[in-house]
Amino acid sequence: MTRHVRHIAAVLALAAGAALCGAAVMEPDAAIAHAAPGAPGDSLSRRAEKILFYERSFRPSTYDAPVQLPASAAHAPVYVNHVTAAAPETVQGFRVQAINTNSYEESASVRNALLAAFDTWWVYVMFDSPTYRVRIGDFQSRSEAKRALEQVQSKGYPGAWLVPDRVILHLPPRMPLPQMIDSALAR
Predict the structure, then answer these.
(1) Of 104, 110, 109, which Cα lies nearest the Cα of 160?
(2) How, if at all, do strands 123-128 and 161-169 pair?
(3) pLDDT score, position 169
(4) What pTM does this model have?
(5) CA torsion through residues 106, 110, 116, 120, sign
C-alpha cells in the first residue's frame, strides 16, 4: 500500500470509529490534520475526503416530501374487472395463409377483407423481407385448420393453403368491427 492510500484508510477508520462510539464526526480537513500530521495535504486527498464525508453523512429521508393526493383521487371508487383469463401460451399448430405478396397495400386490403369476413378469428400480417404473408386463425389440429381453409377458400381466396406455425392459445375473443352507419338512414 502506498503512503497516500494508508493515510486515507486511517482517516476513514478514525471517522468510522468516532461515529460508532457516538462521538461527533470531525470535518474532513480536521480529520486529516489529526490523523497524520506529516501526511501530504494535496487537494486530491482533501477532495476525496470531503466527498467521502458528505456521502457518509447524507440522509435521503430528510429530503422526502409528504405525498398529498387530491381530494377527488382519494375518494374515487375502485372498479375491479372480475373476468379472469388464462395467460397466452404458444404451441405448435396451424394457420390458413390467404396470400403471399410483395405489396404492402395488397396485404393490408386482404387483411381488412378477412377481418370483415371472419369476426371470430385473429388475422396476422407477417413480414419476411421482401414478402408479406397474411394468415388467419390459431388452430391446434389439422382438422380444425382444414375446415377453416374451406371457409376461407369459399370467401374468394382459392389459393389459400395450410401452414404449420406457432399459434397462440387462450387469446381473448376478437371484438367485432364497428358497423358503418348510412347517413341517409340516420335522418
Answers:
(1) 110
(2) unpaired
(3) 87
(4) 0.50
(5) negative
CATH architecture of 89-169: 2-Layer Sandwich (3.30)
Half-sphere exposure of 105 (CA within 13 A, CB side): 0
pLDDT of 103 above 50: yes
* Proportion of the chain above pLDDT 90, given as a percent: 37
> For 106, phi and psi rounded to 5 degrees?
-65, -40
- Beta bridge partner(s), residue 128: 131
Angstrom distances, CA of residue 45 to CA of 8, 16, 17: 7, 18, 20
Domain coordinates of the chain in residue numbers? Answer: 3-59, 89-169
Distance separating alpha carbons of residues 13 and 28, to the nearest angstrom: 12
pLDDT digits (tens, 9 = 90+) for 132-147: 999 999 999 999 999 9
Of the candidate ranges 5-9, 86-90, 145-149, 162-166, the one whose mean pLDDT is the lowest: 5-9
- The C-alpha atoms of residue 132 and residue 106 are separated, in whole angstroms, by 9
Residue 139 CB-half CA count within 13 A: 21
> Which three cell numbers mark 156?
374468394
